[in-house]
Write a structure and sequence with these properties.
The structure is a single chain. This protein has 321 residues and is α/β, with parallel strands linked by helices. It has helices at residues 8-22, 30-41, 56-65, 82-86, 120-123, 127-132, 167-170, 184-194, 199-202, 212-222, 229-244, 254-270, 278-289, 297-301, 306-316; strands at 46-49, 71-75, 87-92, 97-102, 109-113, 134-137, 140-143, 149-154, 175-178, 248-250, 294-295. It has 2 domains: 15-212, Rossmann fold; 225-316, Orthogonal Bundle (Helicase, Ruva Protein, domain 3), CATH 1.10.8. It is 45% helix and 15% strand. Helix 1 (8-22) packs across helix 2 (30-41). The chain starts with 7 loop residues before the first helix and ends in a 5-residue tail after the last helix.
C-alpha cells in the first residue's frame, strides 16, 4: 500500500472503510469522522465541542482502535497538576537516582476530556507536546512516538468551574469541531442500532483499518498532492480578510493558512484527486478558523456567530479559476 507513488484509489477505500467501521457504532457524525482523519494526516489536533451525550469520547476511542494506536484518556479537573499529564521523576532506591516515569501524554491518541476544567498551569503542560511532539522535563527532552494526536473535548453550556483556553493553545488545534445533536432520523437509527447491543462489547470486534506504522508513509504521500499557486494566494487572501474584517476583533495567524493548505491536500486525496480545488479549501476553512478568530463585543451582542463571518469572507473572496 502506498509504495512508490500515491495510490488514490487505495487511500479513498481506506477512508471509506474507516467511516464504515466507525458508523457501526456511531450514527451520523460523518463530517466529524472525516475531519478527524484529515487532522491526523495533517499532523493536527482536534478540539471537539458539544453537549454531554453526543458520543465525543466514544468517537475518540473508536478512532484509536481502528489504527491499532495506543490510547490514553485524561480527565481534566481543577486540581489536576502538570505532572499528572507529562509524568514525573521517581526516586530509584537501588541506584539512588531519579527515573522519569512517562505520563499519559505519551500515547499515540490522547483524549483530554473537558479540557477547559483545568487551570493555566496544567494547560501549559500541553504547549510543547502539541507543537513540537516532544516533552522537556528536568532538562531532558523526550520525543513522542508518532503518530501523536490530541483529541480534546469541552462542554459549551456549563461554564461554572471552567477556564478559558489561552489563545496560544487554541491556535495549536488544527480544527474545532462542533458536535451537534442528531436529527430525528439519526436519533431513531441510534435507538434501533443499540437496543440489543452493548457498545463496550462491540469495541474489540472492530477490525483495524490501518496500522499506525503506515501513517507516516501515508503522510509522506499526501505531500505529493498538487496545489496551484492561485490557490495559495486564495488561502492567503482569506486569512488577510479575517484580520481586516470589521466584525472580528482577532484575525487568524499564519498557522491558520498552513492548516488550510495541509488539510485541503488530505481532503483532496480522500476524494480520489491528486490536486486541490477551491472547494477543498472552503470545506476545511470553517473548522480551521472558527476557534482562531474572535468577534467584536458588538457583534456578539447582535447574535452573530464566528461561522457567519467566516462564511461571509469565503463568499466575498474571489475564487480562482
Amino acid at each position: 500500500m502506498f509504495e512508490n507513488r500515491i495510490d488514490l484509489t487505495t487511500f479513498k477505500q481506506t477512508t471509506e472503510a474507516l467511516k464504515t467501521e466507525m458508523q457501526k457504532i456511531i450514527i451520523g457524525q460523518t463530517e466529524t469522522i472525516d475531519l478527524l482523519w484529515i487532522a491526523l494526516l495533517s499532523n493536527g489536533h482536534v478540539l471537539m465541542e458539544g453537549v454531554p451525550g453526543v458520543a465525543k469520547t466514544l468517537i475518540a476511542k473508536l478512532f484509536a482502535s481502528l489504527m491499532q494506536a495506543s490510547f490514553a484518556r485524561i480527565q481534566f479537573t481543577p486540581d489536576l497538576m502538570p505532572t499528572d499529564v507529562s509524568g514525573t521523576s521517581i526516586f530509584n532506591n537501588k541506584d539512588a537516582t531519579f527515573d522519569f516515569r512517562k505520563g499519559p501524554i505519551f500515547a499515540n491518541i490522547v483524549l483530554i476530556d473537558e479540557i477547559n476544567r483545568a487551570p493555566a498551569k496544567t494547560q501549559a503542560a500541553l504547549f510543547e507536546v502539541m507543537e513540537e511532539r516532544q516533552l522537556t522535563y528536568d532538562g531532558t527532552t523526550y520525543p513522542l512516538e508518532p503518530p501523536f494526536m490530541v483529541l480534546a473535548t469541552q462542554n459549551p453550556i456549563e461554564q461554572e468551574g471552567t477556564y478559558r483556553l489561552p489563545e496560544a493553545q487554541l491556535d495549536r488545534f488544527l480544527f474545532k469541531i462542533k458536535v451537534n445533536y442528531p436529527n430525528l432520523e439519526e436519533e431513531y437509527q441510534i435507538l434501533q442500532t443499540h437496543q440489543h447491543r452493548d457498545q463496550k462489547a462491540m469495541l474489540p470486534t472492530l477490525q483495524p483499518i490501518v496500522a499506525k506504522e503506515q501513517i507516516a508513509q501515508i503522510k509522506q504521500q499526501i505531500n505529493q498532492i498538487h496545489i496551484e499557486e492561485t490557490l495559495l494566494k486564495y488561502i492567503a487572501q482569506v486569512i488577510i480578510h479575517t484580520r481586516q474584517h470589521p466584525a472580528l476583533y482577532l484575525g487568524a495567524s499564519p498557522r491558520a493558512s498552513l492548516a488550510i493548505m495541509h488539510a485541503a491536500k488530505v481532503y483532496a486525496a480522500m476524494n480520489g484527486r491528486d490536486f486541490v480545488t477551491p472547494e477543498d479549501c472552503k470545506y476545511v476553512a470553517v473548522p480551521v478558523l472558527n476557534h482562531r478568530v474572535q468577534l467584536t463585543p458588538e457583534k456578539e451582542m447582535e447574535g452573530i456567530t464566528v461561522e457567519n463571518i467566516i462564511e461571509q469572507i469565503l463568499k466575498n473572496v474571489e475564487i480562482p479559476r
